[in-house]
Structure formats: structure tokens, C-alpha cells
Amino acid sequence: MHYWPGYVVLAIISAAHVVSGAVNTVDTDHLQPPLWAVQFEYEQLNMTMRNAQKVSFVITAVEPALGSDFEFRVLNDNGDVAYIDEVTTVSSNTNGVAKVKGNFTLHATLLGYTQVYVELQRTGYEAVRSAESLRVIVTRSLNLADIIFNISIACFVMVIYVNFGAVLDLEDLKRIVIRPVGPAIGLFCQFLVMPVLSFVIGYFLFREMIELRLGLFFLGVSPAGGSSNIFAVLLNGNLSLSITMTAISNLAAFGMMPLWIFTLGALIFRDGNFAIPYKSIASVSCTLVVPIAIGVMLQKYAPEVTKKMSKLLKPVSLVLILAITIFGCVLNSYMWKLFTTKILIGSCILPWLGYVIGWLIATVLRQPPKDAITIAIETGIQNIGIAIFMLNFTLPQPQADMTSAVPMANSMVTPLPLLLIYFLKLCFCRKREKSVDAEANAKEAKESELVTFMENGMEKVNSKYPQ
């Protein structure tokens, strides 16, 4: 049985085996609990998911008062993290003290913690757990599929950003830089609204779970994510504004992230051992600037190429978003077991409320509809990679990966309302185009009938009154 509970009878030792003589006559009801101890091969065992490890152990100092009806079982606290099988034992008796040597195979299935222990069971008595236990830590391993996926997505993103640079309206970009109202609203929403919002949501949802509060807060103080530019294209937002806001957001993160982490963040995690990922933020900024610059150069020196690229921008962007969402969910399917109702609720509330607040503020401040949509998208989408990077620096493993369930859940639910709007808009526009085409065809048919009628009338008049 693959998921066998993990217990096996290790030893059933008869009274004759435990002690030579007439020990069977002892009245065990009036004896103190028997003394015995377990020694595992390891004090702590670190494993990676989907791996197995053979572990040996020794049970010693078994008192003869146990009698003949007892058994030892090897168990663990968390069957989701690991399970035990292939238990084998060899028992011996030296000077009236029994000793049991054995081993078992431990299979790691999910990242987390568990304790392996031995349990003594006797008929008529409560089960007794060993004082000794083996602490097991299961962490995540990066396999070939993860590496291929990450490299593929990185290449895809580079191509997309080259395309962004190729279709970038430089005059519009110049106007935004000269009068940066949109970026100012975006900075206010990104680095004031979202951090406070993430702190408040985390406080009410994860009051007793400090790590999850930290995961949500790190998400809230992160800069805008690159996928915001893709959604700006799909939803007919202002691409120039989106790219400008993303770049400014990532640059502002150098100062704003430490500010929030050492103020509100200190209330969540008071020992303050934070490592701000400056290199990660800088690399994100570079991955934005370099391919966009290449695209701008193509726009200047190869305009025919950029015209062809602009036609592929929306479909390629949509494919990228779907690929990241679908394959990311498949490769990180183990995370689904870590998702609780509260994690899913918090992961939905933060970005979705960010969209609404960003759009409302932009609309109240009389921004054009395209700019308002763009500001809403930039507000709601955070850089998941930076949040996970910070968690890995702040927390030990597997705690960091377990806490990463918050940004991972966020990455899965953040695109949902935007994709829904896109597909509804797509269907609505198609219906509208069909109705417009039908009206145009009907109008053309009427005009054709009128022309035919007039021509026939003129022929009749000419035949009746020839010149």
C-alpha cells in the first residue's frame, strides 16, 4: 500500500524472551510504566520533496514487566508531509533487557515539518509515545521542468518587451515625463495604498499566523509587476504610461520598500532581520530597460519590422499570460495543498481591491479612461518574484516556501478579473462588429435597390419620351 499508515509491529516479545524464568507471574497492573528509549540514526533529517530516505533506529532498556502482549509502532505527526513504509526489525535479549534494532523508509511528499516517533501499545493500556523523536524538514527541489519553464518564460518576456519598445509612442512618453500626473497617482496607490491595505488585511486574516502576515505584507510593498504592461495592451490601456509607471515603481522600490519594512513591517516581525533584495530590484529594472531600448531602436531603424511586430503584440501577450498561469499552476501544483481559505481570500482581496481603488482615484482626478485603466492595473499587480525573494532571505526553509503560498496564490488569482474583462470585451466587440457590419450591408443593399429603381425609372422615361 503506497500510503500505508506507516506503522508495523516492531517486536512482540514473549516473557520467556524477555526474562528467563517465571516473570510471567508478575502482576503488571500494579507496576510503574515501563522504561524504554529510542535512538534514531539522525537527530534531524533534511529532505527534498519526492525523495526517500532509509532511517535506522534502536529501542533499548525495555523492562521485563511488559509481559507478552505489546507492540511498537513507528508513526509520524504529519502524513501530508511524509509517510513511512518498509519497516523491518530484529530483536535481541541481553541480561534480561530487550533491544530492538530496525529501520524504515521515509518518503517526503510535501514541504513542511513532521516528527517521527515510536509508540508502545499494550492491551488494556493507553498508547505511550516515545520521549525521543526524529525531526524531519522537507524542502522543495528545483527540477528540470522548473528550469525549462523559467528559461522559456524569461525568453518570452524578453521578446514581449522588445515588442513593447517597437510600438512605444515616444511623443506620448515625452508628454508623460513632462507632466507626470499618471505616474504620481500610480506611486501614491502603489506605495501608500497597497502597503497599508496589505497590513490591514493581514492583521484581520492572519492575526495569529505571523509568517502569512509577513508574506502578504511583502507582497503589498513590492513594486509593480511586468505583467501589468501586458494587460495594459490587452485591455487597450496606455502602454506608454504603463511602461513609465512600472519603471518608476521599480526605481522607487529602492527607498520605499526599506521604509515600509522598518515601520509597519517591524510591527509584524519585530527582530528586524530583513535583507532588502537590491540586486533583484536592479535586475528587474534592467530587464525592463534593455529589451525596450532594443525595440525603440527597431522602431527607428526598421519601421517595416515594427509594423509586423505590432500586429502580433496582443496575441503573443495573451499566450504569455495563459502560459504563465497554466504551466505555473501545473508545476507548482503541490502548493494547492498549502492553500487555505484565508490565504485564498487574502490573495484575492489585495489585488482586486487595488484595481478598484486605483481606478476610482484616477477617475476622481479626471484622468482619461485609458490612463485610469492603466493606473488600476499597475496598482493591483505586484512583482511576485521580489516578494518570494524577500521571504527566502527573511525566513528559513521550509518556512519560506510555506509562506510563499501567499504570493503564489496571489499570482494565480490576480489575472482572473482582468482576463474576464478581456474575454467579455472580446465577445462584446465581436457582436458589436457583427451588428455594425449587418447595418452597413443593409444600408448598402438599400442604396443598391434605390440606384436600380432610379435606373429602371430613367429607362422607362427615356423609352416614353425619346430625345
Automatic annotation (TrEMBL):
Membrane topology: Multi-pass membrane protein
UniProt-listed Gene3D superfamilies: 1.20.1530.20
Superkingdom of the source species: Eukaryota
Pfam families according to UniProt: SBF
Annotated signal sequence range: 1-21
Membrane-crossing residue ranges in chain numbering: 147-168, 180-206, 212-235, 247-269, 281-298, 318-337, 343-365, 405-424
Entry-linked InterPro entries: BilAc:Na_symport/Acr3, Bilac:Na_transpt, Na+/solute_symporter_sf
Main location: membrane
UniProt keyword annotations, A-Z: Membrane, Signal, Symport, Transmembrane, Transmembrane helix, Transport
UniProt subcellular location: Membrane
Record-stated family: Belongs to the bile acid:sodium symporter (BASS) (TC 2.A.28) family.
Name of the molecule in the record: Ileal sodium/bile acid cotransporter
Organism this protein belongs to: Bactrocera dorsalis (Oriental fruit fly)
